[in-house]
Structure formats: C-alpha cells, structure tokens
Amino acid sequence: MTGLPRLDQPFVTGSVETREGRVPQVSSSWTQADYLGTFKARWGIGRMHYMVDPGLYALGQPDEKSPVLVTANYKMSFDRLRKALPGRNAWILVLDTKGINVWCAAGKGTFGTDELVARIGSSGLERIVSHREVILPQLSAPGVAAHQVRKLSSFKALFGPIRAEDLPAYLDNGMKATAEMRSKSFTAWERFVLIPVELVDALKAAVMIAPVLLILSGLLGPAGFWPNVLNQGLFAVQALLTAILAGAVLTPLLLPWLPGRAFSVKSLTPGLVCALWLLLWRWGDGGKTGGLLEMIGWGLVILSVSAYLGMNFTGASTYTSLSGVKKEMRWSLPLQIGSGVIGLVLWVVSMLVDQGV
Amino acid sequence: MGQLIYLKDVVTLALNEEKCAGCGTCEVVCPHNVFRLNNGKVAIVDRDACMECGACATNCPTEAITVQSGVGCAQALINSALGRSSSSCCCVIEPKKPGAQETAIQNPKSGCC
Predict the structure, then answer these.
(1) On the CB side of B63, how many CA atoms lie within 13 Å of its CA?
(2) What angle do the packed helices A195-220 and A234-244 form, to 10 degrees?
(3) Distance (Å, rounded) from C-alpha A333 to C-alpha A327?
(4) CA–CA gap between residue A273 and residue A253 (Å, rounded)
(5) What whole-number percentage of chain A has pLDDT above 90?
(6) CA A195 to chain centre
(7) DSSP conformational letter for B22
(8) What is the dihedral of CA A68, A73, A78, A79, to 10 degrees?
(9) What was the ipTM of the complex prediction?
C-alpha cells in the first residue's frame, strides 16, 4: 500500500502541503470531463474502470480541525461527495474498493473495517488532523463495524447520512442526522438513472439473438428466404424489442404503481400492455400476419422476457432481500423459461403450418 | 420507502433480545427503519422492510443480530447455478473475504456490483 494519491490525476486542482507530503487538492466543482464521465458510467461505458487513486485528498483548504469524510474509489462516489460540499474544507479519505461504489463494496466487504483501518494508517491521518473522528457514509455499514474501527485504529467512526447532499446539514447540526437522512429512498429519478445500464445489457443480448431469429424465419417461413426475413423475421425482432421496452424500461419506471410485489409479476402489466399493442398492430397489418399461433407465441415470449428483465432489476433496487429474490426465482424462472419455450415453439409451428408442412 | 415492500415473511433477520445491550447502533445504520430502540432494548418493528444488507449485524457489538446477507442479485444466482465464477462477469457469488467483516453473516456473498 503506497502513500499519497497521484497529483497528476485530471480532476486534481492543486496540492496541500502536510506533514505526510503533498496531498492532492480537489474542488467541489465538476468539469465537463466529470459530467461526461458520470454520463458514460450511467450507460455502462467504462464503469468497471472509473476510479480515482485511493488515499487522502484535500477538499478546499482543510486544517487539522477539518472533518474527515470517507468514500469509495469509484469516481462517481468521489465526485458526488465533493460536489455536495461547495465552499467547505474537509479531508477526503478514499478507500480502495476496486472502483466499486460504497453500498455494493460494503456488501462485498471491500469497503470494510480492515481497508478503512489500513488506509487511516497508511495516509498518516493521525499526524494530519488533531481530532480522532472519521465520518462514514451510512451505506458503508454492511462492511464497516464501527466499534471495531475504534479498537483497531485510534479513530472513532461515525455514520453520516446516506446521501452526500445531506452532509452540509449533518455537519452544521453537530454530526446529527435526521430519521429521513437515514432512510433509503427509491424515487422515480433514482430508478430512472438505473435504466440505461439495464437497457444496454438487454440490447447487447438482443443483438446476438436477433440474427438467429431472422435466419430461422428465413428458413422456416412460407415464402422465400428474404420475404420471410422481412415479414416473420422482422416481426420477431420487433417483439423482442417490445419485451425489452416493457421489462427493462417501463417496469423500473413504473415500479411502485405496478401490481404485485415480485418484480417478475410487476413486469406482467407493461408486458401485457406492450404485447397487446404490438399484436393489435400486427393483426391490422392485413396479409402479413402469421395468424393466431404466431401472435400467441410472441405474446408468451414477450411476457416471459419482460418478466425475466424485471426480475433482474432486483439487483439494482434498494429494498429487495436476497432471501426474497431466491424465493421469487424459485417459482418465476421456471415459468419464464417454460412459457418462453412454448412461445417459440408456437412461432415455429405457425411458420411451418403456413407452408402446409 | 413508504409503499415499496418486497415479499412478505421471507428474511433471515433474527434478534436475540437477551444479548442486546441497547446501544441503538442497528437503528442508526438500518436504511429501512426496521428497528426501534425502546426501553433499553431494540425491537424489530418492520421485518418485511428488511433487505438483508447486514449493516445491523456488522455493527452489533454483542452479536445479538444475525442475518444471511448478500447483495440480492438475480443474475449472480443464475450465474452460480450455471457454474460461472469468472471475473469477466461481475455478478458472481464470491466467498466472503477473510477478515473483511466480523459479523454473524453465514452465506457467501454475492459479488454483484
């Protein structure tokens, strides 16, 4: 474990001289690069390598009385922390969480007691501040045993609020958090920003599956290869995209208002609505439709894919338990697989029957 | 959160009232108001709101709280059932890092970020 974070990192605006050497200085403002980085991370671009060096940083011009705020070395965590503290002076102690955010790293143990104690030691924090307190984000609690930190280092670990945005009030109120600051929400905006990553993952799978559907339709359909591809094939791809819309976009957005508690059940409402809308369009398309079998088949596939994607959103949610997810998966996954397979079989049959095979 | 509740009666959260020293740290760290400190002891007041994050168990100095915690990722469970454990997919079940936490957590932790 080496000492100080590098001074030449792009977001470092200067340095502060301390007994331990030159500590990189950061501000609470974001540059265009910071905004772009956050945007890209939200779309899953480079987010597994979006990191800052672990170690001690200076926000503004902190002195030996300034508070010490601890965070993860995921750059978004670091950026959101400093952005929440305009005009303030503080020390920011960044732990090596391998570029993972606070809550997930805490769950995995990388934002943990040992790493915190080690980082306090290696940064020489004792010789930089005269007080003996570090402030942790509340969501690091799964990984950090505050009473152990006290025993293993000379510092007392306090749990600050969940949101960095509440830190100014917390600090001004003498390190007191309100009950609201200690409750994890899952607002429409919070759900909204999680959609791009889910969508990109689903589309990556779709890009692999679509050619298979097109080729299958070309070979098995009633007319020639290319007419089939443009008719049954294209419709299959449209159905797939409809399922992705329902499961990866609408389910997260409308979560609190969708009936059911299990996420796969919640997905059935947008799944059904989107499927009906697509099938009505297909029905009205006159001579192109493959008949009832094709529609029921794709209706089933849309419901199962939509349910699968919705169930997957549990991993990004803020309130589902592992025990609950296991229970949901036990009955839901077989149903998803079963109805998906039946749907595809019906589709294949619908194409063969058309040929009079 | 007010209206968002997942499945009922399913979490592994358990409180041993005899061991409880009434420090109230569980109430402080819990993100879903599961606990309330009352007359020197803590009580579970909203069990179905628990997401098994483990914050309470990790921070209980007397080990009065146990829970099988893990990041609740469906993808990690599927991957583990398929026998996948490589680093190319972040969503895997990893064995808990030794010494990473001193808690009563029993299960291996899911590695989903």
Answers:
(1) 7
(2) 160
(3) 10
(4) 15
(5) 92
(6) 8
(7) -
(8) 160
(9) 0.92
Residue B84 C-alpha, separation from nearest chain A C-alpha, in angstroms: 17
Query: Measured in whole angstroms, how far is the alpha carbon of residue A297 from the centre of its chain?
Result: 32
Give me the residues of B, 27-56, that contact A with CB < 8 A: 28-33, 49-56
User: Between chains, do B113 and A100 touch, taking CB under 8 Å as contact?
Assistant: yes
User: Quick check: B9 contacting A, CB < 8 Å?
Assistant: no
Please report, as a single letter, which amino acid is at residue A194: L
β-bridge pairing A55-59 and A68-72: unpaired
| Interchain proximity B71–A183, CB inside 8 Å | no
Q: What is the share, in percent, of chain B residues with pLDDT greater than 90?
A: 57
How many angstroms separate the CA atoms of B111 and B113, rounded?
A: 6
pTM for this prediction: 0.91
B4 vs A101, A319, A329: nearest CB: A319
Q: Does the distance separating the beta carbons of A141 and B58 come in below 8 Å?
A: yes
Could you tell me which residues come within 8 angstroms of residue A355 by beta carbon, excluding any fewer than 6 positions away?
Answer: A221, A222
User: How is A212-280 classified by DSSP, letter by letter?
Assistant: HHHHHHHHHSSS-HHHHIIIIIHHHHHHHHHHHIIIIIIHHHHGGGSS-SSHHHHHHHHHHHHHHHHHH
What radius of gyration, in Å, describes the C-alpha atoms of chain B? 15
**Cα–Cα distance, B65 to B56 (Å, whole number):** 7
Question: CB-based burial of residue A39 (10 Å sphere; 0-12 exposed, 13-18 middle, 19+ buried)?
Answer: exposed
Q: What are phi and psi of A39, to 5 degrees?
A: -60, -45
B26 touches chain A (CB under 8 A): no
Contact A3, A23 (CB under 8 A): no
Q: Sign of the C-alpha dihedral, residues B93, A253, A249, A200?
A: negative
Task: Give the residue from chain A lying closest to B52, CA to CA.
Answer: A321
pLDDT category at B86 given cuts 50, 70, 90 is very low
Kindly report the number of other CB atoms within 10 A of residue A89's CB atom: 15
What is the amino acid identity at position A186?
F
Check if the beta carbon of residue A184 is closer than 8 Å to that of residue A318. yes
A250: Cβ–Cβ under 8 A, 6 or more apart, which residues?
A: A270, A274
Q: Please give the DSSP secondary-structure letter assigned to residue B94.
A: E
Q: Give Cβ neighbours of residue A338 (< 8 Å, ≥ 6 apart).
A: none
User: CA of A107, closest CA in chain B: separation in Å?
Assistant: 6
pLDDT value at residue A355: 58
3-state secondary structure A318-332: CCCCHHHHHHHHHHH
